[in-house]
Design a protein that fits this description.
- By secondary structure, the protein is mainly alpha-helical.
- Helices cover about 80% and strands about 0% of the residues.
- It has one domain.
């Protein structure tokens, strides 16, 4: 795992999901017009970086059980966040 790609990728995904959620929360009409596009772009860029950081040297090995567990938790959180984000879009 390469934390220099994994951490920014996961943070961009989280920021994108948050921006999409805020834009459709009904806070202001101006958010709906532009913030969801910026959130989608940052989430897409995070989705490009995340697998590269996760699979740089191959799959996480069992020697670092903490690293494999962290990768599993991060992957589950991202999958749930994406499911939540797509539920808001549709």
């Amino acid at each position: 795992m390469d934390w220099e790609l994994l951490l920014p990728g996961s943070l961009l995904i989280a920021a994108g999901v948050t921006a999409i959620w805020i834009s459709y929360a009904g806070i202001a009409e101006t958010f709906l017009q532009g913030l969801h596009a910026i959130g989608a772009y940052s989430m897409l860029f995070g989705l490009v970086l995340f697998p590269g950081g996760l699979l740089k040297d191959g799959l996480p090995s069992p020697k670092g059980a903490a690293a494999a567990g962290a990768a599993l938790v991060i992957t589950i959180v991202i999958a749930l966040a994406l499911a939540f984000a797509f539920r808001l879009i549709i």
